[in-house]
Amino acid sequence: MSKVNRLMIVLCATVALAGCGGGESSVKSEVTTTTAGQQLMDLKKALDSGAMTQSEYEKERKKVLDK
Fold first, then answer.
1. If both were cysteines, with which of 21, 31, 45, 56 could 52 make a disulfide (CB 3.0 to 4.6 Å apart)?
2. For helices 54-66 and 36-49, angle between their N-to-C axes, nearest 10 degrees
3. 3 or 55: which carries more pLDDT confidence?
4. Are the C-beta atoms of residues 67 and 36 closer than 8 Å to each other?
């Protein structure tokens, strides 16, 4: 086997193995669900605390109820 052939085999093996293992990447996702009732209660609290106006409250309340 010539030096060039051996070099090509070693090079190919190195490239092939370079993508294997390691990395330890992971994907995390978090799903939260809020019921319509909870959303309405949160909106009412925001209205009562002054965090939103009556018109904002009505607009957001309609969105929740229309879902």
1. 56
2. 180
3. 55
4. yes
